[in-house]
## 1
Amino acid sequence: MAIQEPKKRMRGSARRARITEAALEVFAARGYHATAMEEIAAAAGVTRSVLYDHFPSKRVLLITVLQEQNARLVEHIGARITGTGSPGRRLRATLDAYFSFSEDWPAARRLLFDHTDEDDPEIKAVRWGIREARTRSVAVMLGRDLRNLGLDPDTDAAHAVVELLISGTDGLAQWWARNPQMPREQLVDAAMLVLWNGLSHTPGRTSAS
Amino acid sequence: MAEQETRDNGQGGINRRRFVTGALAATAGAAAGPLWGAEGARAAAPALLKSSVTGRNVAIFGAGMGGLSTAHELAERGFQVTVYERKVLGGKSRSIPVPGTATGGRKDLPGEHGFRFFPGFYQNLPDTMSRIPFGSGTVRDNLVAASLTAIAYRKKFLRVPIPSELSNGLTPEVIQDFLRSAIIAGTTIPLTQINFFLSKMITFITSGPRRKLGQWENMSFSDFTKSEIMSVEYRELLTRMFTASLVAAQPDRANTRTIAMMFEALLYSGLGLGPYGPPDQVLNGPSNDVWINPWIDYLTGLGVQFKVGWSATGFDHSGGRITGARVTDPTGAAGTVTADHYVAAMPIERVMPLLSSSMKSADPQLARLSHLETDWMNGVMIYLKQPTPIVEGHLVYAGTPWALTSISQAQFWTTDFPAAYGDGVAKDCLSIDLSDWNSPGILFGKTAKQCTRPEIVQEVLAQIRAVTPNGNQLLPDSLVHSWFVDPAISGEGTPAVANDEPLLINSPSSWANRPEATTRIPNFYLAADYVRNNINLATMEGGNEAGRKTANAILDAAGSSATKARLYDLYLPKEFKSLYDLDDIRYQLGLPNKFDILAPYWP
């Protein structure tokens, strides 16, 4: 691919972007510990010294990629969710937004939420921040609906509901990665069945009113 | 009479409410016009001073942070304090409700112009707050930790991840590594420039006190960080954000000692070092409700008299002392008030015109006050129809020409916003600080000073949307209920635009022009943010610290044996003690700091 590009001097920022995109793929495929900087340099088509001109260490590179992909996730979801419509519609739009992110950026989802075994305080802090921001945005989005359920969004019970929602959705995204034959719409339907209607209700009946 | 009424404390303050003006009314014969008859007061003042053995009558001019803090320390120690305030109690820290917005028994919409930010490195002010009763606790309990303070930049949120522990102990190199990865991860600033910036910041935090004052005080932050030759992103995120956005001073007008010290304190507080609290704390309600009013109540209970609508117009200086303060009362009538001690607790631009040439020649530091500078940092409230907590804490909109910052308030308030305020339709307040009034905006190409109020609001919204992820969806016009631009601004959009409440900035070498709380006029004191203080920033904390210094000076002057008000120092890691010592030796030898290796600055 690089060969077909017109010969021009690649700007620093373009080269940096290429490095982080390559790093995303490699980190997501192999995990942090098993990845070597040489592999990333090779995948990005740059020399090792160019890589080190931008990122002084593997750790810093991972942190960068995590932050970038989190920003991508926030932007992706933010552009697709809706603040209006019925609560059911809003939940559906959010689930669909998350699954479409998994579909469009599978490596990003894997890196953000599946690999979490790095033993480094700074990486931990980044991961904590990402997780916290996500939990929080879901809690805010569902604030009104939680209140309708009689749950104050600041209580532990509300946090538990949010956690269940997030980890359930995450688990479903992982399952979908292994069972990609299922269309996204059906996946959202399945999630709504439990998350919205609840197990005790017959599917199809809009009961949460 | 004076002696009898100035008997010492013990039984609580309320019955000790002598105020000099009242005592003098009798002398003056209570003629028509102002109660306290100027002639009589002038004549009586010297006699009163001599007869006043204990010297415990204090007149404070200005009821902002400096004045209230002075009053607090002194009233608790049995002094008789009268506070004169030209405008409203609380100064720049007060709430400014939007008049006429309440319906159905609610309160007017709350306006928190220049939102209250209590970083973890404030120590004096939280201590004062812990001594103001509130319900069964204190006002200090109304401070809540905000988290996830963030920066919106080029449609992304940048957050600085704070590790719970530093992996290899506290050394300059460990700090540098941590900051390096945070900046690399959050920005696309070239690594060489990041390394340069960090070498300078590490240079600062390992500098000894002599170098800080002798070298960094005199250098602008833009020179220190060489921002002119760096990338746009470097200028916007590393230079302008810490100056224009946070303290309303352009990078070339802010001194390095002030700005880098704030950076250092934020860093230590973020890392959980020292005695510091969480890096970002806010009040859990409008400032007046959860802080200022309970404070006034408490001080009133201690016997402090508040005279609102009374402006000081000058001080009578004779025989080496202040013998009276000329004032106008709420009707505009002029007169003089007297006391044993006179405290000028108004901001710099208000105190300057009151200082006579005889006062300035008595104390040259008063003459040097004219060199201190102010700039504008005023608020715009935008009321929203839905709760919209953009982030859970303060948000800096980096790279916005008007240097905007904001906080979404309803999320922190214990009251149910629509039930408590306004017409029930407004559900949140986005409190925005506008810190650069001189740069052209993106919508009209005009500076904030050149815009009308509606234009200011449109421009502010446009700038926020331009840098915030999904900004247009997040803050559509349809979400806006109403808005309120700081009423201190007048004549906006005309050449006569003015600001009644500007903010001190710490320009290079300004320390030399900043006064102590005490002056060479033995009964005249200064208590405001421009007084030399540890925090060295124009802040509520600085005003509080100055108030403590003044109170201590008055305790000395009055020969009081009461315990002094405590002054808290900023935290410096003991691990770095030897580095500071070494650096000051290097400084005195004319050498650069040992970490200052990339284009070093020689003393």
## 2
Amino acid sequence: MLGKLRRLNRDVSKIALEESERLPSEERRRFLRSGLFTAGGAMVGGALAGVAPKALAATQYPPEIPPWTRSLGPGVVTDPYGVPSPFEKDVIRRNVPWLTADKVSSISFTPLQHLKGIITPNGLFFERHHAGRPEVDPQQHRLMIHGLVERPIILSMEDLQRFPSVSQINFIECPANGGMEWRGAQLNSLQFLHGMVSCAEWTGVRLSTLLQEVGIKPEGKWLLAEGADGAAMTRSIPMEKALDDVIVAYAQNGEALRREQGYPVRLVVPGWEGNTHVKWLRRLEVGDKPWMQREETSKYTDLMPDGTAHGFTWVMEAKSVITSPCPEMPLKNKGICQIEGLAWSGRGKVKAVDVSVDGGQNWQQAQLREPVMSKSLTRFSLEWKWDGNPALIQSRVIDETGYVQPTLAQLREARGTNSIYHKNAIQTWKVNGDGSVVNVQLS
Amino acid sequence: MFSFHKSSRVFTGVCSGFLLASMPMLGAAESVGHYGYGESPTEEQIAAWDIDVRPDGTGLPEGSGSVDEGMQVFETYCSSCHGAFGEGMGRYPKLAGGEGSLTEDRPEKTVGSYWPYASTLWDYIHRAMPFFAPQSLTDDQVYALTAYVLNLNYIVDGDFVANKETLPEVVMPNHDGFTWEDPRPVVQNERCMEDCKEEVTVSDSAAGKNLTPSTTGPLDEGITE
């Protein structure tokens, strides 16, 4: 190792000398005096180990020439699988410890406050496990399709990838996203309030292709999807949706699914409750009736004030939220700023987003940023001149069906405060005079 | 080598099918077994994985279990999380009680107060419980636990024995409490752009509640309004 390093230093020094030959004389002298060459091995060794941020002088901007400009960095494949800069160490998923009994059956939230564009990086996609994250061996994993079909099959992951593939960008949202806030404002964080939504490009086989391959019998009207995890997660899905836009996905943003997202194969049910996107998919059964499983009866049903409950409320209705500013990202300066956010709808495309800075008295139409795709996150922005006075900022999405995102008061009026799921109300952020941002609710 | 032969045969099939079909039919001409990938499962393979149970009892296996037997199994595997009488522990679910609470301010959704089907109980215990060792119980133990939890909720008597005949007959108290068609959208907001309301009142704020776990940037600590 040391020998290699010495040889490398020699090579680097040689290259540096050769490089300096081409410089005008004054610059060449400065170059030769510079740390890289004179400090020799130590400097290069330091560069190989990565520049320690704390060792730097307080400022490295003009007129300073920063050390990373005067040294060499680590070579290729230092990280064979690349990782974010250490300066991004706070951009991570987080959980709310008091929310669940155990981390094995729990949820983590995507740091929406840090994300750009519409794609959630694979390592930041929110997690929802009911029995932890299984370590599934793709060589051993099988997907069985049976029930009311002409030709039941067992597919290996290799078999599955031989079918024609499709890719589409879709969000996945847990219907409990924001569910802690029905009764009042509790959490002061974009991440914890809205971070149970993420968006990725999914690649896999259309479920309709697989169902055509096995041949659905005429009485086959429902599909049961089941996971291979310790919860053996199940949901019933009507055949109409199964044949529409559902994907049996094995890839996410260009690489194999992450384990947290169901590696090696999951269902993607665009626009529907996250819970239906069964991970670690091992079985699809065709039947004539729904199965009334635990998840679709005792959970993921919406209790109304009269004591009755709505089941099979699969669609995630349109929702939007301002991601900048937000509690984690306060305003630092008066003057022109860009109000930015995300909007989405389980019924199709986002048609428009409006923004209010006075608590919903007046609204301005925001700009939608391309691409605007069906059942995908969509970015919006609006330029705003903040005068330093407190403000109540909100966003309101309108989807292509004409549905207008409701206020919290309207939702409470219709659904009470005990339905847990499907809280897609307009979010209000209060911007204080010092630029800090607080989660508030309006009456 | 087998798979090689198999795929060659499939390839031939695809080609001849393609030639026979007219061009506009491309994509729509796929039929059952068109690709021919994968294996045909044996009945034994299907039976081993096909564990779901429906409200009409479809999927329930042979075997049985009584309330008394269930109590013993429950004490061994379940009470550490769910409490000896299904009263729940901390954030672990309460299984019994809560009758009539669904319209109250703090509803308790338990097997007795909320679950619409008894079959779901058998299915779920069998597939996912006990939490730390799923799919480790015998069918008789699952029947016994189902009987015990139903009895904890006063849905069956103490001499109840659960089996594939008796369980589908059990009518849950909240069986009719659900609608299975999505009524949404039920809220119609208007897209008003100007002078939409006369006054704006902040009714609640997360500031100072100190419920937010630590993230990046300033949070509720120190923010008082």
